[in-house]
Amino acid sequence: MRARAHLPLMAAAALAAAGTLTVPASAVPAQAAACSGYVGLTFDDGPGSGTTTLLNSLKQYGLRATMFNEGQYAAANPALVRAQVSAGMWVGNHSYTHPHLTQQSQATVDSEISRTQQAIANAGGGTPKLFRPPYGETNATVKAVEARYGLTEIIWNVDSQDWNNASTDAIVAAVGRLTNGQVILMHDWPANTRAAIPRIAQTLAAKGLCSGMISPQTGRAVAPG
Q1: 100 part of the active site
Q2: What is the DSSP string of the chain?
Q3: Quick one: pLDDT at residue 124?
Q4: Are 45 and 98 a contacting pair, CB within 8 Å?
Q5: Cα–Cα dist 43/159, whole Å
Q6: Which residue has the higher pLDDT, 145 or 33?
Q7: Percent of the chain scored above 90 by pLDDT?
Q8: Residue 100 Cα distances to 48, 136, 137, angstroms
């Protein structure tokens, strides 16, 4: 979904799976603290002009997230894909051009997914294991193509509405509704989302929650590993 078309600090992991890539220990927070649960922070539609600022803020506040990249932007900004991985983030597939996949032929769906897998891998983001269909729209055709590429479909439990001009307060409040294992939809590009990062960290810490990875097996947020 996108408007332009639509704590404790978490336990450090010396090795983080980002497709086939290994993230150095220096890329993740060093302090470890007990977490009563994990949530999945996700950012769609990158990488782009706001990615560097977003990554710097996430790192500063000890947060990790799954970045659902569009293939066209990964191909155009390979250095930003590598920066996502270096910052300890995980990289997922969000199609190549962000179309309404449920209105496309199977061949087009296949092209959208396969080209993005390749673009992200070529950029240094590893081979994605997670796929978020644009607008959260899916059907049997989309699911069949996902399966062909070994991708787990990830929608969301909470929509921050940042794509719909949600205020920073509203985005923080949306994060506050998350419970253990749940996933929230956010985007790479809204300024209000970037501004919300410090308070997102505070909100999760107050609930004893940490930012985790999304399991390809269950589609739920789990401890990084």
Answers
A1: no
A2: --SS---PPPPP-SS-EETTEE--GGGS-------SEEEEEEEES-SSTTHHHHHHHHHHTT---EEEE-HHHHHH-HHHHHHHHHTT-EEEE--SS---GGGS-HHHHHHHHHHHHHHHHHHTS----EE--GGG---HHHHHHHHHTTPEE---SEE--GGGT--HHHHHHHHHT--TT-EEEEESS-HHHHHHHHHHHHHHHHTTEEE-EEPTTTSSEE---
A3: 98
A4: yes
A5: 11
A6: 145
A7: 84
A8: 21, 9, 7
Of the residues 45, 94, 98, 187, which is catalytic? 187
- Tell the burial category of 105 from Cβ atoms under 10 Å away from its Cβ (0-12, 13-18, 19+): exposed
Among 44, 45, 162, 188, the one annotated catalytic: 44
The one-letter code for the residue type at 208 is G
Are residues 27 and 88 in contact, defined by beta-carbon separation less than 8 angstroms? Answer: yes
Largest CA distance in the chain: 48
**Proportion of the chain above pLDDT 70, given as a percent:** 85
pTM: predicted TM-score of the whole model, two decimal places: 0.86
Q: Is-catalytic flag, 6?
A: no
